Amino acid sequence: MNVPRFLSRLGDYGELARDALVYVVAGTLVRSVSVVVVPVLTRTLSVASFGVIETLTALQLSVCAFAGMNLDTALVRYYYESRDAGGRRTLVTTIMAATLVTCLASALAVAAAAQALSSWFFQTAAFASPILMIAASVPPMTLGNVALTVLRLERRSTAFAVVGFIAGLAQGALVAGTAWFSHGSITAIAGAQLAGASIFAVLAITSVRSSLVFAFSWPALRRAAAFSLPLFPSVLISWYLSWANRFFLVSMASPAATGVFAAASKIHIVVVALTQAFLNAAKPYIMSQANEPRSPRVLARLMMAAAVALAVGTVVTAATAQGILRVYAGPAYGQAGMTAAMLVLSTCLSFGIAGYYALRLELAERTAYMSLAQGGTFLVTTALNLWLIPLAGSEGAAAAVIGGSLAQAVLLRIIAGRLHEPALPAWTWSVPAAAGLILVLARVLGLL
């Protein structure tokens, strides 16, 4: 056994584990604000009004995904190729400036369409003012997220944790306090979300001010766009898969069905926050090792471990979600336990399996193929939403997410095989299949 080599590898994984722990804590705080304030919102608002708030949040995150134009992905890809500090600062500033322009344009477009969007989603123009607040929150929210990406790339995990903790605490307090003292005013809650996004942006951008310079590089922007824009449809579809079910539910079922689905999704959000934190820690390491011969093997091991953990999480969620939701959100939401477990299962497919092939294509700089796979996923998910939501409400929406995640994993596997990219072991597919079979048996036996 080569002991020095083993210790060297152990050191790499130890650094990854340490960073992952920091990103898990901080990332969970930033992304799980809505989880913390749910007990206040569900006890202040009716189930239908809670569904309206969740639909507005889905709109906010969807516009942020569009406004960012996926430029932060190019920042991650090319940051380490700039060997000097000046080149990295120019790249960061260029991406931030371009993101600001696209965010302002997107915010203005949403603001101009506020009344039409309110009538489309809720069959009334009464929610135009909250939509205006959501539009105004897009630039600070998106720029703050780009700044967090810079902190990750600089491997400043402590600063990332501090910003995440303070921003999460401030936004949670603002939303919860506003909901309580305004007696559930939806406009006031949307205003609190805007204030929280602004605080987040100020903290995050201030923390990376040393990485910003008065410089702009058109060649850097063209290169970033050439990398990120082919991937942009894939990113939009990913957000669509995560959030469009709210729009389908509120228009095809009811705001109350949206509220029930949203309560279940809070358990899922915690799981997604943990997986995203893991990816936040792992991706800079994976990218820095991209040219190493052992890179495919390391990536496969990481993602297989994630798939197994998520499958176990699916079973644990199935066993505990009903009781948790009754205490956490209230008796009206206890029925959402099966929906919560199904959503966790979808993450096992989309992150553990599809995520591996997506990262392989990204490392190979073949991002256009990812958008091709996501196009098929979009079609499958849309068809399933249109079919299943009228039949089964919130559980139909969750089943559509599982179907879309499975389609995504299969399509990416086919594409990666055509491009001769290394495949995961065949047994990996049995992991989510076993978890899904347990859910089916539990439902048949009346346990869920």
Keywords for this entry:
single chain, 448 residues, mainly alpha, 2 domains, 15 helices, globular, disordered N terminus
Secondary-structure blueprint:
Elements: H1 3-31, H2 33-44, H3 47-67, H4 71-79, H5 85-112, H6 114-122, H7 128-153, H8 157-181, H9 186-207, H10 218-252, H11 255-288, H12 295-328, H13 337-363, H14 367-418, H15 430-444
Helix pairs in contact: 1-8, 1-11, 2-8, 3-5, 3-7, 3-10, 3-11, 4-5, 4-7, 4-10, 5-7, 5-10, 6-7, 7-9, 8-9, 10-11, 10-14, 11-12, 11-13, 11-14, 12-13, 12-15, 13-14, 13-15
Summarize the structure in words:
With 448 residues, this protein is mainly alpha-helical. The chain has 15 helices and no strands. The chain has helices spanning 3-31, 33-44, 47-67, 71-79, 85-112, 114-122, 128-153, 157-181, 186-207, 218-252, 255-288, 295-328, 337-363, 367-418, 430-444. Helix 4 packs antiparallel against helix 5, helix 4 (71-79) packs parallel to helix 7 (128-153) and helix 10 (218-252) packs antiparallel against helix 11 (255-288). The longest helix is centred in the last third of the chain and has 52 residues, at 367-418. It starts with a helix and ends with a helix. 53% of the residues are buried. Mean pLDDT is 85; it is low at 1-10.
